[in-house]
Amino acid sequence: MSKIQVNDIVNHFDTGAPDCPKGLNVTGTGVTANSLNVSGVSTISNVVVGGATTELIVNGDARVTGILTVGTASVTLNGNDGTISGINTVNGVSFPSAGPLGNRNLIINGACRLAQRATSSSGNTSSGYYTVDRIRVANSSLGTWTYTQESDGPPGFSKSWKAECTTADASPSASDFMLMNIAIEGQDLQVLDFGNSTAKSSTISFWVKSNKTGSASFEMRQKDNSDRTVSFGYTINTADTWEYKVINIPADTAGLFDDNTGPGIRLGWWLNSGSNYTTGSHATTWEADDNADRNPSNLGVGGAVNDYFQITGIQWELGNQATPFEHRSLGDELIKCQRYYYSQGSEGTFYGQRYSTSNSFVCKDLPVTMRADPATVTYTHGGGGEVSATSYTRASRFQIYVTGDTTVNVTDLRMDAEIT
After folding, report:
1. What are residue 61's phi and psi, to 5 degrees?
2. Up-side HSE of residue 143: CA atoms within 13 Å toward CB?
3. Which among 14, 70, 241, 287 has the fewest CB atoms less than 10 Å away?
């Protein structure tokens, strides 16, 4: 086979690069082209373009067909089906790697803007819901606490939830524990497709602040699946400083979420515990319930008076990419929260209606159907008479009957259908 080796090829005027009006076909292995200007119909195979630079510049019209992978980040342009993959950020803004662009946050009230029960509650030693909507405390014999909705947050957040210790427990008993929970209905988790080969991974992100530094534990427990658990450690690096944390949650092909209104999963941020929960290691893949693996990274909040734990900006979404927090309007968030807890609030007084000469009733349709018939209903009964029936109250309405008075009214109505 003949071979021609040249140092330079110029046009016939000796003024620059050669003209190839009938096209140029360059093939071979390791062909290096410096200052190559290609126009017309040309085929270039196995060519390094740019020499010492890393730039590929195309001037004018060009068409790339097939699949082209660009750069070390492997951005792939698939000319066969018109897709682009491998791009996680545009202009510094992260985009979801899976799931919808809107309504992607599985957490309700993740920005802690709503606190229908109260904005502050002190002297607490037991489990329950106290202030910020959807946030539950699980406390077993570990200190006394004040819970508040704080007007304090990282950039972009005006509110947060705070737990502050007022009576410390420096040496918790083995079975003692203290953690913050959020429970989600099973029917709202079907999108994760757990229990199938197509089960999806997800990402939890949040802002946290504490006077304590060091390693802390986060867990998820499948309530419909014998508390099948996954747990992770994260680190609070600097005291009294808002820090952003991201944790990737694996899919679970053996998982289970019942398609109903019961608790499908419970998320937990551990503050402190005894040794029953700290002697294992984090289960970074889903495993059968094992208490020892739940809080291996014990932050120890509550070992001293004034210890505190503060959180906001909680977001759980499909895919392995943490995206900017999905801020919903306060009205949208309120409707979502009222499914679990309804407070009459600023709605004022509900007046009764006469149904006979001496009897009346009060009926109030709720703004949203609650998760279930309320477990507790409290109110202040104004006027005279006696309440004779309350059994007509349901998930969609409040209703009582009063005998002996036709001027009855109700204030401070509160109805609770939260997940316990």
Report:
1. -80, 140
2. 32
3. 14
Distance CA 200, CA 42 (A): 45
Give alpha helix (H) positions in 186-227: none
**How would you classify the pairing of strands 202-210 and 308-318?**
antiparallel
Contact 352, 360 (CB under 8 A): yes
**Which residues touch 17 (CB under 8 Å, ≥6 apart)?**
9, 10, 11, 35, 37
| Residue at 416: amino acid letter | D
Residues 89, 127, single domain; the answer is: no
Residue keyed to tokens 């009214």: 409
pLDDT at position 413, please?
95
Q: Using the 8-state DSSP alphabet, how is residue 293 labeled? A: G
Query: What confidence tens digit (pLDDT) does each residue in 28-73 have?
Result: 555 555 555 555 555 555 555 555 555 555 555 556 555 556 555 5
Q: Which pTM was predicted? A: 0.81
Q: Is the dihedral of CA 240, 184, 233, 138 positive or negative?
A: positive
User: Is the domain of 298 the same as that of 165?
Assistant: yes
The answer to whether the CB of 368 falls within 8 A of the CB of 116 is: no
Task: Determine the Cα–Cα distance for residues 19 and 17; give it in Å rounded to an integer.
Answer: 7
311 and 360 share a domain?
Answer: no
Determine which helix (DSSP H) or strand (DSSP E) holds 275, and give its type and residue range: none
pLDDT tens digits for 262-280? 999 999 999 999 999 999 9
Count of beta carbons in the 10 Å neighbourhood of residue 265: 24
